[in-house]
Amino acid sequence: MAEKSGMHMEYDINKEDFNSAGEASSKVKKTLNMLGVDNKVIKRVAIAMYEAEINAFIHGGGGMAVADIYTDKIVIEISDHGKGIENLELAMQEGYSTASEEIRMMGFGAGMGLPNIKKNVDELDIRTGPGEGTDLKMTFKLN
Amino acid sequence: MRVKEVAELLSAEILYDEISNDERDFEHVVAADLMSEIMLDTAEQSLMVTGLINPQVIRTAELMDVYAVVFVRGKEVSAEVTELAKDRGITIMSVCQTMYETCGRLYEAGLTAGR
Fold first, then answer.
1. Which residues of A touch B56 (CB under 8 A)?
2. Which of B59, B40, B63, B38 is nearest to B48 (CA)?
3. Could you identify which of A16, A44, B41, B85 might form a hypothetical disulfide with A120, taking C-beta atoms 3.0 to 4.6 angstroms apart as the criterion?
């Protein structure tokens, strides 16, 4: 069983404030930098977590970001209470998006989020369904 | 290419000058209005060129280790964006030219694609 390094962080993803979306990712990145984690891993965590955080804001109406740092892995969980993903297979395809034009004008919602998340994680567990919200568990191995 | 050289080349107005970035050598450029494209992959020592002016540009830059952003078409950048750039240590500048012209000048000067 993995030994816990004692780092557990939780952040709200505020559904009212698009400008603050990404703040949790920024804080986790800073912590990983302070802990001296390999830069390449930090970048992968930052990319995947930020994309997931933006998704939780866009599609989930806000939610929660939880980060746990162990000696052998980093686990990030982003959960929202939105309407869930109706067709996960389609959502994993690059270019498929249900985002509004307004979100696209803000620089997101082009259907690149989930595929990019998948590319950057070692393990990805998605629990979702119509009306059930979405829960993304992303694992990054260390060493 | 240093920040000051980029600003001179583009006749840019520096909106926030982060002193610690003065010695950075920018070798590459990533240009997009879609932040998801910047998030795909960005090489180190990249400069970002964009027409988007919301705070997520600064957050994207921060997370991708991009230390300087050029806003094109002379768009007015809000105080919120400038404050966030200051807080995150990211140099920001504004140019009157279009993205096409801006990238053209940077390309001519020898900077290559950041991804």
1. 18-19, 21-22, 54, 106-108
2. B38
3. A44
